[in-house]
Amino acid sequence: MDASELSAIVNGASTVISLIEKYGPDAWTTIKTAVEDTVSSDGPTAADIESIYAKCKADNAAIQAS
Description:
By secondary structure, this protein is mostly helical. It has 3 helices and no strands.
């Protein structure tokens, strides 16, 4: 692994942690589900993507309302 790959991993982890700190545990659930569906052997279905997108929109609406 070279420095740029390591940097990308650290930056990604930092982003995820900051989202969880800012928006709470629901952000982690949404991120985890998206990652699990993306890395599965057959990938996410269109329904999976639509479900994750709807959850992100609902999370965002709740955040904006608070």
